[in-house]
Write a structure and sequence with these properties.
Helix content: 40-55%
Structural class: alpha/beta
Strand order of the largest sheet: 8-21-20-19-9-16-18-17
Radius of gyration: 35 Å
Number of strands: 21
Bound molecules: adenosine-5'-triphosphate
Distance between the termini: 85 Å
Largest sheet: 8 strands, mixed
Length: about 900
């Protein structure tokens, strides 16, 4: 038996589609009731878990190449080559150092990105696939990884097929096999036994792992699992691991390109000026002057490139993903993190997301005195898929409410179901808005939305009944109508026919989630409009919306009304109306598109198969982790593990925080690089030549520049990713699409701080250099000490400026001095590193530093501190300008 002895490698070659059901059963050794528990366990042991490889993993080489293939890195490598070529002896060390940095940068970047990818891959597993298997005659809801060959599985619309399987019973089963064949038109399945050599795409009696059931139901026997499935065999076609790109990182990459170009131009300009100045003032020949100046130009390039930035961005995004997961929002596509922050409209389901989905029947109504309540109870018990248990029924909440009510009202659900065996059923589907069952003896029952059910009933005063429906719905009750019909032999799935007898109405409550009320308030204060989209009755929807505090400028609209609207009227409705009732999935799609055309960033929730197009179209598709179908999860950007609206609001809040923190990292890091460029510009034009060597004086050695860029900037920048939320983060409006990354005021701030840093670095350098020379100490020591002091000065600037960057809005106390302890850990770590940089002998050799005294530390600290009053002054000026603008 090839399947069961653990070697199911050639199992996939077996033409299962050519077997009839009997042969299939005997080959796979499975009885009518499915496998036994022990058998399933044994097979899991031999065949292994049903894990379908989740796409080709990015290789380490690709990760590494991703780090190197960056214009900033190319500039660095170019600088290293030029250094070595220009001066084979002296340049060698600098060239090697630069390559060392490229390597270090690549290693750090690769590790960071690898970690981020792992975190994202792990998220995928937090939303496990489920499968319904039938073992020993019982329906079991199991983890899809536990499915084994021979298992009998049950499929319903919205499911992802868990393994390759041969169909044995179907009802209107349609499967979308795009993941396998690329064909996105759903295929209607059949049970006909096929020839052995039938192509995969034509094997209509088979279903394949990873494909999606989009309509109907079916039963099938699993033929192969895991890597042995067709999907497992063609792993090259699988969806690749998600890219780590987001709109912001793309914009930053573009910025990086522009910056690199600027740096190259600047470096060449410096080279020209430097050569000219050296030749003019020292009289050395061109080649000598060129060799000396090249080091200058390279230092400029190394200093001006923000080497630490890519690492900071990746860390901020990865932290964002993890924090959202903690708040029960699983981000499936990374760009969603940022997009969430700019959301302007959230379109949300009602049942379960805004309400608790715990329904209880509150009231019922009978159309006339000659209709008995017993019949209503019987219909509620029979036309119902919820299974009664000793602790109440389980299943769809609407049906649970009805089953519990029937039980409480004296009907024994289990008993009546045994007595009236069900012989056919039309399952509930949102589009149809009803469910029907047929029982032995020819009686059919039907329950569903009152308008739909009543339209098929005869001999009923529909107007009175609908008045009753309205009255109940106005109280926020969900109303269902029940009906019956005698003498049927089968249910017509296309058209259940007229002539039904109306049995009565049932009204149930589904209380709002208290946390949803709070979250809606928060969203609306944050300038995000909340629209409720529901399949429920208009009056019920309006009443619940009112309870939830959704702003309703206009009365609710129904799906029918939307269908009748031309584009202009629809656009008006989309913009102004906030409650949509009796809505079908196609309305959702039109709504998303219209809102987007109006410039909105739209988040849309969905759970059904037919919600997939709207979820894909939305800027943020939000799927439900508990009640959502596999199809909807697949189409979404974010999955809520608790199905709760409050989680969307939390994710929006996190999204805004991540974006803020990315901007803060950028705002923090850029002045340092700009200041280094300015420092070298000043040095080139104004610094004297070295007293002894008669070469241009470097205010900082290339290695020291790398220290600032790779060690100081990163140690201080990383903690910014943990920065707490800005106060009132949800009281400001959403970021307008297309806003530049750096606002005008940040550009001004960056320039001012950079000039300040450069001026301070140049001054302390010259002052220290001159003082030491004046004391008669050697020139080499003077240079080293002066450079060390210049680096320390910049580091203190960074430390104090970091505190200023913790919030982009106002004083630090607005977010709390100690709300982010990581900042102080980063500062502490950097001070220790800095001490090592200055005092540890091996570091002195590597970085060409020299120990400095306490006085020098004080000078560096005081210089750095000047950034604080400067930022306060800038802020004051900004505030005044804002006030003037407001007037
Ligand atoms: P939302 O779209 O916010 O989740 P909903 O749950 O009311 O709202 P649907 O599930 O599409 O939306 O239900 C639409 C209507 O169909 C309900 O108002 C109800 O009248 C009817 N209905 C819901 N569940 C069932 C069911 N299990 N059997 C029969 N009819 C149902």
């Amino acid at each position: 038996m090839p399947v069961l002895n653990g070697n199911n490698s050639n199992n996939q070659l077996t033409p299962w589609h050519s077997y009839d059901v009997e042969a299939l059963r005997s080959e796979l050794q499975v009885g009518i009731d499915g496998l036994t528990a022990e058998d399933a366990k044994a097979r899991l042991g031999t065949c292994g878990p049903n894990e379908i490889p989740k796409g080709r993993k990015t290789t380490v080489w690709e990760l590494i190449w991703g780090q190197i293939n960056n214009p900033l890195v190319w500039v660095l490598i170019g600088a290293g080559l030029v250094a070595m070529a220009a001066d084979p002896v002296g340049g060698l060390k600098n060239g090697l150092v630069i390559f060392g940095v490229v390597v270090l940068n690549t290693v750090i970047g690769t590790l960071q990105e690898g970690k981020a990818r792992k975190a994202i891959e792990a998220l995928d597993q937090m939303v496990p696939d489920r499968a319904i298997v039938i073992r020993e005659g019982q329906n079991l809801d199991v983890d899809a990884r536990e499915v084994v060959p021979g298992d009998r599985i049950q499929l319903a619309s919205g499911d992802r097929v868990p393994a390759d399987a041969r169909l044995i019973a179907i009802k209107g089963l349609m499967v979308e096999e795009a993941s396998l064949t690329g064909e996105s038109v759903p295929i209607e399945k059949s049970l006909t036994v096929l020839e052995a050599k039938t192509d995969l795409g034509d094997q209509l009696n088979m279903v394949f792992a990873g494909t999606m059931v989009v309509a109907g139901t079916g039963h099938a026997i699993v033929t192969s699992t895991g890597a042995q499935t067709q999907l497992g065999l063609i792993s090259s076609m699988l969806r690749n691991a998600d890219h780590l790109d987001t709109p912001l990182t793309k914009a930053m990459a573009k910025l990086g390109k522009t910056v690199s170009l600027g740096i190259i131009v600047l470096a060449i300009a410096m080279l020209v000026v430097g050569v000219w100045r050296t030749m003019a003032s020292t009289g050395v020949p061109f080649t000598k002057a060129f060799q000396e100046t090249v080091l200058f130009a390279i230092s400029l390039a190394v200093g001006a490139i923000p080497e630490g930035l890519p690492a900071l961005i990746t860390i901020a995004l990865a932290i964002g993903v993890q924090r959202m997961a903690k708040r029960r929002a699983i981000v499936r596509k990374l760009p969603a993190i940022e997009t969430l922050g700019s959301t302007t409209v959230i379109c949300t389901d009602k049942t379960g997301t805004l309400t608790q989905n715990k329904m209880t029947v509150e009231t019922h109504w009978l159309p006339s005195p000659d209709r008995a309540v017993e019949e209503l109870i019987l219909a509620s018990a029979l036309c119902n898929d919820a299974s009664p248990t000793s602790e109440g029924a389980v299943g769809d909440p609407t049906e649970v409410a009805l089953a519990d009510w029937a039980e409480k009202s004296g009907g024994n659900v289990g008993f009546v179901r045994d007595k009236h065996t069900r012989i056919d059923a039309i399952p509930f589907e949102s589009e149809r808005q009803y469910m029907a069952t047929l029982h032995k003896g020819g009686t059919a029952y039907k329950k569903g939305a009152p308008e739909v059910v009543l339209s098929r009933c005869s001999g009923v005063d529909a107007a009175t009944a609908l008045d009753r429906v309205h009255a109940m719905a106005d109280d926020g009750l969900r109303v269902l109508a029940l009906a019956k019909k005698e003498g049927l032999s089968a249910l017509n799935h296309e058209d259940p026919g007229d002539g039904w007898t109306f049995l009565g109405l049932v009204g149930m409550i589904d209380p709002p989630r208290p946390e949803a009320i709070e979250a809606i308030g928060r969203c609306q204060r944050a300038g995000i409009s909340v629209k409720m989209i529901t399949g429920d009755h208009r009056a019920t929807a309006s009443a619940i919306a009112k309870e939830l505090g959704i702003k309703q400028d206009r009365p609710a609209l129904t799906g029918h009304e939307l269908s009748d609207m031309d584009d202009e009227a629809f656009a008006q409705a989309a913009a102004r109306t906030s409650v949509f009732a009796r809505v079908a999935p196609e309305h959702k799609l039109r709504l998303v598109k219209t809102l987007q055309k109006q410039g909105n960033v739209v988040a849309m929730t969905g759970d059904g198969v037919n919600d997939a197009p709207a979820l894909k179209q939305a800027d943020i598709g939000v799927a439900m982790g508990i009640t959502g179908t596999a199809v909807s999860k697949d189409a979404s950007d974010v999955v809520l593990t608790d199905d709760n609206f409050a989680t969307i609001a939390a994710a929006v809040e996190e999204g805004r925080r991540v974006y803020d923190n990315l901007i803060k990292s950028l705002a923090f890091i850029l002045p340092t690089n700009l200041s280094l460029a300015i420092t070298f510009g000043i040095a080139l034009v104004f610094f004297p030549f070295d007293a002894v060597t008669r070469e241009l004086l470097l205010p900082m050695a290339p290695m020291q520049l790398l220290w600032i860029n790779m060690v100081a900037s990163v140690a201080l920048g990383v903690p910014l990713a943990f920065e707490a939320m800005e106060r009132g983060i949800m009281d400001r409006g959403p970021r307008a699409p297309g806003t530049p990354i750096l606002a005008k005021n940040l550009v001004v701030r960056t320039a001012v701080v950079a000039v300040l840093m450069a001026a301070a670095a140049c001054m302390v350098f010259m002052w220290e250099y001159r003082t030491i020379l004046a004391n008669g100490l050697p020139d080499e020591l003077a240079r080293r000490e002066a450079q060390t002091l210049a680096v320390n000065t910049l580091t203190f600037f960074q430390i104090f400026y970091l505190l200023m960057c913790r919030t982009l809005q106002g004083p630090i106390k607005s977010i709390g001095w100690f709300s982010n302890k990581a900042i102080y850990a980063g500062i502490g770590a950097l001070l220790l590193l800095q001490a090592a940089f200055v005092y540890v002998p091996s570091m002195n050799v590597l970085f060409e530093t020299a120990p400095i005294d306490l006085r020098s530390w004080l000078i560096a600290g005081l210089c750095g501190l000047t950034v604080v009053p400067v930022i306060y002054a800038i802020r004051k000026i900004e505030e005044r300008a804002q006030r003037n603008e407001a007037h």
